[in-house]
Amino acid sequence: MNPAEPPPPPPGEKLLVFIVRNNTKCGDCGQEIDHGSFVRLDPKLGALCMACADMDELEFLASGDAALTRRAAKYSSMTAVVLKWSRSRKRYERQGIVAETAAIERAETECLADAPARERQRQRRAVQAVAEDAVHAAAFVEKIRTLFPSCPPGEAEAIATHACRRHSGRVGRTAAAKELDETAVTLAVRAAARHRHTRYDKLLDKGVPRDEARTEIAAALDAVLMKWRASAARK
């Protein structure tokens, strides 16, 4: 691989193919490999063109259709995951797979045939997910009101909606939050209060480092949470 290329990721896949960022040469035949081309990495020879890697008969199938990818991989006697280095995220990301053309064509035919059925299943799962999320959010709201009985009207609902949004990766989606763990729920409330009721966001906008900003607003945040807990403390 060209020295300007990022290092390969640790092994974990059986076969990996990389999209090169810079022009390089095949470590076997010596032919030029243009940027954007696929290569296979050899521990001794470095970057190999697809022909020298004995993978030139494979066709690229981009990510985006999980059923199509799964079926193509099932029917192909050889497949490899295609990775590309993301400069912004500083990591390799999947772009799709390479597989035999016949396998991809067979997968496409099958996916086309049962597309209506899979769409109905997807819609049913979506409806079920919405119902499950509504139940979880409602329980989350009640837990917030139990822990913070003086939380302003509408605030608990807004916090729960934000924290529990599916695929958000936020604290409300954690296993602990789904069990209404007090620590997890409190973390969600603290995060919301930090953004909505302190100068935290303004400090970040001014370029203040995250840790310094949190230290600066710590007293104000504690005061807000103490106020929201107030009636519970009096009981």
In short:
The protein is α+β, with helices and mostly antiparallel strands. The chain is 49% helix and 16% strand.
Can you walk through the features of this model?
This protein is of the alpha+beta class and 235 residues long. The chain is built from 8 helices and 8 strands, in the order E-E-E-E-E-E-H-E-E-H-H-H-H-H-H-H. The protein has a 6-stranded mixed sheet. Helix 1 crosses helix 2 and helix 3 packs across helix 6. The longest helix is centred in the middle third of the chain and has 33 residues. The chain starts with 15 loop residues before the first strand and ends with a helix. The model has no long low-confidence stretch (mean pLDDT 88).
Derived structural class? alpha+beta
From the N-terminal CA to the C-terminal CA, the straight-line distance is: 68 Å
| Total helical segments | 8
Helix percentage range:
40-55%
DSSP strand content: 15-25%
The radius of gyration is: 26 Å
Strands side by side in the biggest sheet: 5-4-1-7-8-6
Low-confidence stretches: none
Taken in chain order, the helices and strands follow as EEEEEEHEEHHHHHHH
| Average pLDDT number | 88
Outline the biggest β-sheet: 6 strands, mixed
Strand count: 8
Q: Estimate the global geometry from the Cα principal axes.
A: elongated
